[in-house]
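Repro:
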Amino acid sequence: MKIGFDIDGTLTMFDSFVKSEGEKYILAKLDFGVQNHNGYDLDEVFELENKLMEKGHNKTEASVKVKKYMNEFWNKKYLKYVFYKLRPGSSDFTKMIASEGHEIHLYTSRRKATEKTLIGKFVRSTIKLQLLLGQIKYNQLNFYESDAEKITALLKANLDLHFDDKKELLEEINNFIDVVCIDNPYNKKYQGERLYDYQTEGKSFLLKKGLIKR
């Protein structure tokens, strides 16, 4: 079988990283903490545009500053994210799948990874390093500029099963591909099959799906 996995938030601890490292950054810059525990990235978790408007900026000014803070945060913290722990049990989960001869294809929409520049080459190499450090088994790694581009690729990939964390993406493809939502605070409204924890539920989930033998 051909199994697809997203990376950020599916194999990585994206939510934990944004909240823990983001809070240090935003406290130092703007002197407030997490505003929305169900947000995805820095802008949503800290409701940056609203908070900046409360501080007297108009919507246009606030929007420009949000982009500035987002870029600065990820430029400063990206390498720390690369070395940040992956989701507990994710390594064993992929190893169990691979041990049965199934193919694992990874799909990620980190825009800079698609650039044909030194920065693009650097980002691609750090993603591979992140997977190596996390001992993730896979056959192929695919990079996309956007989620829209990734969705198009997923629909053409003839996958038997795909694991992802983004509600909107899952809703776009779940009529065509068997999908599983990897539980995160920001995807609670997704109405479909969900895996909460690789470590405690992974083996029983794979047995249920017929991907491994007892």
